[in-house]
Fold:
Amino acid sequence: MKHVFLIKPLEKDIHPFVSTIKSIMKGKDYDIHFSRFDGHVSEIIAQYEEKARFYSVGGDGFLNQVIQSLIYTTHELVVIPYGTGNDFSRLINISKDPEEILRMSLNRETIKSDVIKMNERYVINTACFGLDALVANTVHDKKGGYVKSLLRNVVGYPFYEVKLEDEEGILYEGQVTLCVIANGRYYGGGFCIAPDAYINDGYMDIVILPKINKWRAPYYLAKILSKSIHKYKKTFVKKVKACTIYTEGSTNIDGEQYEGNVLRIKIVPQAVNIVL
Structure:
C-alpha cells in the first residue's frame, strides 16, 4: 500500500518532519506532498485511485481539509500533530510526539470513525458557536495561545443568542457562553469539553454553557480543566444525530473560522478509516 504524506509547510516546501519521514520510511513506498493553496489537498488525494494510507501532517484545521476527500473511501488516515491545538490527535494518539506516532502507526490497524456534516462541510472534531468560537478564530491575532485569547475576548463578549432545534422541536434557545457540537472530546488546545463523546458511537454531543457572570470565568475554566463542565447543573448536554443551529455569532470548525448563520448538522457514521 502506498503511504502518502500531506504536509502543511511552515515555509515554502520546508518542514522539519520531512527528514524524519525519509528516515523512518526508507525502503517503503511513499510520496510527500506540500499543500500550496486552498483545495490543493483534495487535488492530491484525487490522484490516488487505489487504496492508500494518507498522513495529515499539520493541525486540526489542516486535518479538516484532508478529511473532505476521504469520506466513505477505502483510504486510511494517520494524524500527525504539527499545529496549534492538535485536539483530535490528543484524542486518538497515545503519544504527542510526531516521530513516535509515525513509527507506531506502521503496525496499527484502522477503525471507522464518524464525522459531522455541517451544511456542505465535514467536521471531524468539533464545531463551536459561542465565546469558544471567537477565541479560536482570534487565537493567532496575538501571542499567548488559547488561554490568553480567552482572557482578551471574554470581557467584551456580547453573549450571542443561539437557537438549536431538531425534528421534534427546539432543544435550546438563549444566550450562550460556550456552545459546541462534538465528535471528539477536546478543543481549544486541550480543553476537554465533551468527556462522554466517542468518535464511533453514531452521535454528536451538544454541550452548551449559558450566559455567565464574566467575572466567574476562571471558575468555569476550572470546571472544563477538571473535565466536569458537563456535570454543572446549568450546562445543557445532549446526544443527537441531527440538528439545526441558528446563530449571529462566530462559528469555528476544527480550529478554523467558518461563515454561516444557519447550520444544518448531522452525524455521518463510520465515514473515515482512522489508524489508531
About this structure: The CA atoms of residues 15 and 245 lie 38 Å apart. The chain has two domains: 2-108, 125-263. The longest strand covers residues 169-182. The helical segments are 17-24, 40-46, 60-67, 87-92, 98-105, 131-137, 145-154, 217-225.
